[in-house]
Specification:
Blueprint: H1 2-26, E1 33-34, E2 46-47, E3 53-58, E4 65-67, E5 77-78, E6 80-81, E7 86-90, E8 98-102, E9 104-106, E10 109-111, E11 118-121, E12 124-131, E13 148-156, E14 161-169, E15 182-186, H2 195-198, H3 202-211, E16 219-223, H4 243-261, E17 271-276, H5 278-289, E18 296-300, E19 318-324, H6 329-341, E20 346-351, H7 358-368
Parallel strand pairs: 15-16, 15-17, 17-18, 18-19, 19-20
Antiparallel strand pairs: 1-2, 2-3, 3-7, 4-5, 4-9, 6-7, 8-12, 9-10, 11-12, 13-14, 14-16
InterPro entries: AB_hydrolase_fold (IPR029058), Esterase-like (IPR000801), Ig-like_fold (IPR013783), Ig_E-set (IPR014756), Mycobacterial_A85_antigen (IPR050583)
Keywords: Plasmid, Signal
Protein name: Esterase
């Protein structure tokens, strides 16, 4: 009798699980469209109005295909093989809004999806997909005046090479004689200087804010934040990162180059530094080491400041702290409250429904930009 009850409970559990899965699958709306980040004329991957993603990979000789984009740490999305040698599958649930990196595992090997564009993240070029967001208007390409994003190569004697940066100049820069404030905006671990303009759409965020009259135009500079060769799997990993070499590149080489070659207001009162994740760590460390260079600070999923950090140091004009609601928002909120109580101009922002990802940081830039250089 006892074994019969155990069997009955097990059977009921299995049936219940099957019913849940079937209900989930039945609830999927079949209005899938190609992702906006697909390669030209590529149909897959596809996204529906609920945020589900459907993949199709042609690999006729493969024994297994799985996509890393998935939910809950369950190993991603397993694809099923069709008679024509293609593999298809749909995520088991809707994905968070915004941009996501992903890759394809074919018989255990890691590959990029040939159907979509690639973006530098996780210390490699990864496939990217965009889940349409309800608030995507603020970073959408619109019929407004646009600024320019240009690549520069600046001399770096400390690293014995020329280093790269991307510079956003606002609409009208080329035709005016006006000088502008500058935001030095850093990427996260595993990314590079292309991240903020590509994945982050920082230039479009700025164009739209300027067109709506919500901010005073300013320049943005993005450069590579790693100066020592650290790779995944190396002993010590990120713990071996030293701020001093990058601080030298930024303070002694990049900023003087930008001030000499662009129409900037070369004063600390018109200079800001912010960064996401590891870029936030860089921002906090350098802003504390070089209080004579920046006076606006932003940590985007990159830690917090405390009043004690500023003992015997000048008070900045703004401290902006942010993260996603799926990160650790209480710490950001508490830090903001403590800074305000201590007399600092501090703003904390939490992106609802997002985690450690670019939708959090797009929204953070959108919230932070109007507060700079006021």
């Amino acid at each position: 009798m006892k074994n019969f009850l155990k069997f009955s409970l097990l059977a009921a559990t299995i049936v219940g699980s099957i019913n849940i899965v079937e209900a989930q699958q039945a609830a999927i709306i079949e209005d899938f469209k190609p992702s906006v980040l697909n390669q030209p004329q590529q149909e897959f991957p596809m996204v529906n109005s609920q945020g589900y993603v459907r993949f199709k990979i042609v690999a006729p000789a493969a024994d297994s295909v799985r996509v890393s984009l998935g939910l809950g740490g369950r190993g991603g999305t397993k694809l099923a093989k069709a008679e024509d040698g293609s593999w298809t599958g749909t995520t088991e649930g809707p994905m968070d809004e915004g941009f996501h990196y992903y890759n394809v595992r074919i018989d255990g090997g890691k590959f990029n999806d040939p159907g979509t564009l690639n973006f530098y993240g996780s210390v490699r070029w990864e496939s990217g997909i965009e889940i349409p967001a309800k608030d995507q208007e603020f970073y959408t390409l619109k019929n407004v005046p646009h600024g320019n994003v240009q690549q520069i190569l600046f001399p770096s004697p400390s690293t014995n090479t020329s280093r790269r940066a991307f510079v956003y100049t606002p609409p009208g820069y080329e035709k005016s004689k006006e000088k502008y404030p500058v935001l030095y905006l850093q990427h996260g671990w595993g990314e590079d200087e292309t991240a903020w303009m590509n994945q982050g759409r920082a230039n479009l965020i700025m164009d739209n804010l300027i067109a709506e009259g919500k901010i005073k135009p300013f320049i943005i500079v993005c450069t590579y934040g790693m100066t020592n060769d650290i790779r995944p799997g190396q002993p010590g990993g990120l713990r071996n990162f030293k701020i001093e070499p990058f601080q030298t590149v930024l303070i002694d080489e990049l900023i003087p180059y930008v001030d000499a070659n662009f129409r900037t207001i070369a004063k600390k009162e018109k200079r800001a530094m912010a960064g996401l994740s590891m870029g936030g760590f860089e921002t906090k460390t350098i802003s504390m080491n070089k209080t004579d260079v920046f006076t606006y600070y932003g940590l985007l999923s990159g830690g917090t400041y405390a009043p004690a950090d500023f003992k015997d140091k000048p008070q900045p004009k703004l401290i902006f702290l942010s993260c996603g609601s799926k990160e650790r928002p209480d710490g950001v909120r508490k830090a903001g409250e403590e800074l305000k109580a201590a007399g600092f101009n501090a703003v904390s922002y939490v992106s609802e429904g997002t985690a450690h990802e670019f939708q959090t940081w797009r929204r953070s830039l959108f919230q932070m930009a109007p507060l700079l250089f006021q």
